[in-house]
Each structure stands twice: as C-alpha cells, then as structure tokens.
Amino acid sequence: MRTKRCFATPMVALASAVLATLFLIACQQTQQPAPAAESKAASTEKVFVVFEGPWAIVDDPKDPNTVLALAPKTKLHRDLYVAASNDSVLAAGTYDLSVPAHAAAFSGALDPSFAQAKIDAKSLQHALDDKSGRYVIRLPKPEAYVAAKRFRSRVGATYVPEATTEQNYATQVSFRYTVSTLNGFSLAGTPDTGTFNPLLLQLETPAIRFAIEPAVPESPTDMCHTHSREAFRDTVKFLGLTLYVDFPNDSAGCHKTDVQIPREAVQSAPFERMFALLGRDLTDVQAASVVGPAVPDKLTSLAQRGTGNTVWDLMGAVYFFHTGGGACMAPILFLTTAP
C-alpha cells in the first residue's frame, strides 16, 4: 500500500505540469491576433498628390502604368514648386515622382466634374517637346482622381461656350494613393537648363502639392475673372486645342474685353493700365492713352471711388510678387489621345 501511494504522487505532478503548459500555450494563441490587427491598421495610409494651376492630365503614351501632368510656363504665373514637409522650386523640364508600393490603379469613368477634351498624338508630342516653355510631371496612375476644388464655369469649342456645358468643374485635382509607408516619395528630373538634384520628399502629413500660382493674384473684385480666362487661353494654345472658358456669373460686358478673343493690342501707358486693372474699371483699361494723368491724380481717383484697401494690397502684390491666394478658377483639363 505504501508503494502504490509513492507511485501516484509523481503522476499527479506530471499531469499538473502538462496542464499548466497547455494553459500557457492557449493563452499565447489567444493574445496573438491583437498585434496582427495593429500591424494591419498601421499598413494603410492614404496620400494625396495635389495639382494646382493651369494643368492638363493625360495618360503617358509610352507607359500604360503612368500618367502625365503638363502645364505651360508663362509670365502670368510664378515658377512651379513642389511642397510636402519640405519644398523646392522647379525649372521648366520633365520630372518623375516616385511613389512607394500602392493600391491598384484607377479604372473606370472619370467624375463628370473633370473637364475633358481630346488631343491628337502630334499635338501632345509637340507640347512635351516644348523645352523651356512647359512643365511635365510623370507619376504612377493613382487609385482615384479627386476634385480638390471646384468652380462654376462653362467650357466649349465655340465662343461663347453653350449654357449646357455649365457645371462646377474641378480647378484643383488630387491623385490618391494608398500606401504602406510615408517613406519613399522622391522627385527626380531633367530641367531644360541647369541640373536638378533628386529630392527626397518628407511627409509628416500625407500630402504633396505641385502648385503654379498667379504672378499677380486675381482680385475678388474682378467681375470678369481676367486672369483665369487668360490662363486657360495659354493652356489650350500650348496644347494645340480650340477651347474657351466662360463664367456664368460674370457681367455681360466681359465678353467684349475677353482676352480669349484675338483683337488689336490696346496701347496704353504702363501706369495707366496698371491702375485701371487695379481699380477693375474696364472702361479705363480700354481707354487708357499713351499720355495719361499724373500718377498721384490717379491714386486719388481710385481712393475716391472707394476701392478701399484692396487696391493697396494688390499694389503690394505687384511690387513684391509673393502674395498667395487668387488662384486660377479655370478648369483643369483631362485629355484623351486621338490617332
């Protein structure tokens, strides 16, 4: 009897040890999914690459997996710059934006708020080859195109564009990418003159901007959106297209002075024309003569018309060329190539 009791005691101890081990394994297996869930959540990040200014977007004819953003370089605008947490000014040229591994590319119909047009292959190639007169950004096709800003206008191949074309068109567009990391965004390229050192873009916030701002901001008191009309004219001319933009809420007299319509150049004294534009008196713009009133008299006249601080703010913008705001209200164009 005493021998049997000694044999059972080690068996109980062994069974207890086995049960304890199984219990620990079960606990570990139960706790494992939590880190996996955290890892999955951390692997998803949406990044937006925003284009602001007189841009046109088209599929790269040489690579079905990439897309091109094109814009003319004009005196109406300041130089292109790219901005993330760091930034850089870009000279006219061709640049490539590298994006880390991302979700599948966009497929399907575009949002109707994007103005669309057709361009023939020859005109597209001519725009791409227009050295010193254009910017080209090549980047992977995004998973989505998102309207970042809209403004009501009309677009058509005849002047004045038909009322049936009126809608809130996208004037800024975001390319959306879903990535696993904010590291790996970089810009390399070949400016038409000089050199460009590859730029590693730092993204503390998930956004990159390619912006071309007006040299002189468009005034909110300009009832004709003169800058936006002129910027659109330069863009379609650069692309070899015949298109016009109109703004339905502008005054009826704007069609008489629309810069999209060729007409004899108006001769005017530099100060007279500048003051007329600042005061947004279109009659003065047309009637400004070679020899005009003295500058102080014109300043007094503008002040008496009650233009307020806007005139002085715009004069500051003319002088320093570093004032933001007043962005182009003309639609960004999405192009499809035709044979």
How are the elements arranged and paired?
Blueprint: H1 2-31, H2 33-42, E1 45-52, E2 56-59, E3 66-72, E4 80-83, E5 87-90, E6 93-98, E7 115-120, H3 121-128, E8 134-140, E9 144-156, E10 167-179, E11 186-191, E12 199-200, E13 207-211, H4 226-239, E14 244-246, H5 254-257, H6 270-279, H7 282-287, H8 295-304, H9 309-320, E15 333-338
Parallel strand pairs: 1-13, 2-15, 6-8, 7-15
Antiparallel strand pairs: 1-10, 2-3, 3-8, 4-5, 4-13, 6-11, 9-10, 9-14, 11-12
Helix pairs in contact: 6-8
Question: Any key phrases for this structure?
Answer:
alpha+beta, eight-stranded mixed beta sheet
How many β strands by DSSP? Answer: 15
What is the spatial order of strands in the main beta sheet? 7-15-2-3-8-6-11-12
Uncertain stretches of 5 or more adjacent residues: 1-8, 33-41, 265-325
> Roughly what is the average pLDDT, rounded to an integer?
79
H and E order: HHEEEEEEEHEEEEEEHEHHHHHE
* Derived structural class: alpha+beta
> Helical percent range?
25-40%
Number of helices: 9
What is the rounded Rg?
A: 30 Å
User: Largest sheet, if any?
Assistant: 8 strands, mixed
Which shape, going by the Cα principal axes?
globular
- Strand residues, percent: 25-35%
**N- to C-terminal distance:** 102 Å
Describe this structure in words.
With 339 residues, this protein is an alpha+beta fold. 31% of the residues lie in helices and 28% in strands. The protein has an 8-stranded mixed beta sheet. The protein has a 7-stranded mixed beta sheet with strand order 5-4-13-1-10-9-14, covered by helices on one side. Mean pLDDT is 79; it is low at 1-8, 33-41 and 265-325. Among the domains are: 45-216 and 330-338, no CATH class; 264-319, no CATH class. The protein is built from 9 helices and 15 strands. The N and C termini lie far apart (102 Å).
